[in-house]
Amino acid sequence: MSNKVLIIVENLPVPFDRRVWMEATTLIKAGYEVSVICPKGKGFEEEYEIIDQVHIYRHPMPPDISSVSGYLREYCTALFWEFRLAHRVWRERGFDIVHICNPPDLMFLVAGWFKLLKGVRVIFDHHDINLEMYEAKYGRRDIFYYGLSLVERLTFATADVVISTNESYLSVALTRGCKNPEDVFVVRSGPDLSRFQPVSPNPIYRRGRKYLVGYVGVMGEPEGIDYLLQSVRYIVYEKKRHDIQFMLIGSGPMFEKLQALSKELEVNEFVEFTGRIPDNELLERLSSCDVCANPDKKMPYNDRSTMNKIMEYMAMGKPIVQFDLLEGRRSAEGASVYAKGNDVVDFANNILELLEDVERRQQMGELGRKRMEEKLEWRHQVSKLLEAYKKAWQR
């Protein structure tokens, strides 16, 4: 059986991309030789290094700018380096399977090249539904939208096997992707609980306040951090609550704009933007939270996507407040309360109600942790990932 794999990911560096790193290390343990092509990022600037037997090739990227021109520049730069580094990996190590992780969906060009000329198998790891993401960001269906529709179809057509992150993405693969059910595998992104464990809380993150509400994740338009900041303003000025600290962990194209919005709303005294932080600090900060927030906006993209932060909150045994989203509810079930879609006042009131009910918070946290242990954590996904690889080789 083939045992040389090339994984290509564009939007996050490895091993910072937790899902891709779990996939890579799982394959190593199963006897595969794994190479990864990814961008450079803060703390991950080495052009080439070996970590846990995974050979990592990194390339430079332009600044993260949230605009059509910014994305075009980013994707063209990434595509150039992915072609160049894939040929380097082919010369130095070889590969029999190329595993592409969107966004963007342009990676089918690299995968298709090696499939046609070298006979490699292709696995498409479907991380984002780009049509819905584009519409969420720009609110329109224009030439770029229909261009994305075309490359999505070409990506599915190039793939021998598709890995979907949830049932909604499975449906996309079967309908828009026209894939056969036996060629599509659902592999969720639950963290590895052997590494993702609560630690002792640190009161310093509360900054002298009684409660701490946390967020971790990307900071772009669909993530709804602007809604969360409006909820903070309601809590501080309408409800007169000055005993709650809000901690926002992560970065993204809206990071600086959201910091400016925090000042504009006059809530910056109550909100800390940490930027990206190391895993050990992330565990300590999340362990210190009383409630965790997922303000992802109610829209088709978020409704059908499973967010890593939900899984991470549950792994840490934290109660969650989020808007009522299809896949958010499927993941968290009773570990979360669900505010009315995009209603910042209802979101804020749900936070306040949870903070005042210690027993309910504890029950929800325990339910979420148990759900992770019994169904969603990474060890339950390993067999599905390996089955997808077995199928790719058979194809």
Automatic annotation (TrEMBL):
Transmembrane region(s): none
Keyword Endoplasmic reticulum tagged: no
Domain of life: Bacteria
GO molecular function: glycosyltransferase activity
Pfam families: Glyco_trans_1_4, Glyco_transf_4
Keyword Transferase attributed: yes
InterPro entries (alphabetical): Glyco_trans_4-like_N, Glycosyltransferase_grp1
Key words of the record: Transferase
Domain Glycosyltransferase subfamily 4-like N-terminal: 19-195
PANTHER family xref list: SULFOQUINOVOSYL TRANSFERASE SQD2
Record protein name field: Glycosyl transferase, group 1
Organism of derivation: Nostoc punctiforme (strain ATCC 29133 / PCC 73102)
